[in-house]
TrEMBL record:
It comes from Aeromicrobium ginsengisoli. It is a multi-pass membrane protein. Residues 39-135 form the RDD domain. The lineage of its organism: Bacteria, Bacillati, Actinomycetota, Actinomycetes, Propionibacteriales. Keywords: Membrane, Transmembrane, Transmembrane helix. Coiled coil: none annotated. Pfam families: RDD (PF06271). This is RDD family protein.
Length: 148
């Protein structure tokens, strides 16, 4: 008997995981790929959070949150950065790569790379932006705090 959640010819994903057919990724049970709206909301939420925390508070909060695989805005909205190839939440190193190198490539280099990143995010089934591609991550919504 075959599992309807596993595409034909694919290997079983293991206990505690499911295959997300829309994105082609293996994700933990209870976790889903973050929606476009939720991700865009996090992007715009970061601006008032920076203002309220006087930027320096946001930077300190961000450094602490990176160790937990999230950022301040993602944390407020119940999202985490996940490494599907390793089946774990991103650690500080990939988060730094994603946010520093990815952020530089996305925003500082030019408006064109920012636009390319946004188009990638909107059109890819796994919803990866340029920083996600650089760090081999995806952003997931974790409403039940399965990822800790």
């Amino acid at each position: 008997m075959t599992d309807p959640n596993i595409p034909p010819g694919a290997q079983p994903v293991g206990a505690g995981f499911h295959f997300d057919q829309a994105s082609g990724l293996v994700l933990p049970d209870g976790v889903e790929l973050a929606s476009h709206g939720r991700r865009i909301g996090a992007y715009f939420l970061a601006i008032p959070l920076m203002l309220v925390t006087l930027v320096i508070g946001y930077l300190i909060w961000g450094l602490i949150a990176w160790g937990k695989g999230t950022s301040p805005a993602l944390q407020v909205l119940g999202m985490k950065v996940y490494r599907p190839d390793q089946r774990q939440v991103a650690t500080f190193g990939p988060m730094a790569l994603r946010n520093i190198v990815g952020g530089i490539a996305q925003g500082i280099l030019s408006v064109i790379t920012l636009l390319v990143s946004f188009i990638l995010f909107l059109t890819r089934p796994d919803r990866r932006s340029l920083p996600d591609l650089i760090a081999s991550t995806v952003v997931v919504h974790d409403p039940n705090k399965v990822l800790g």
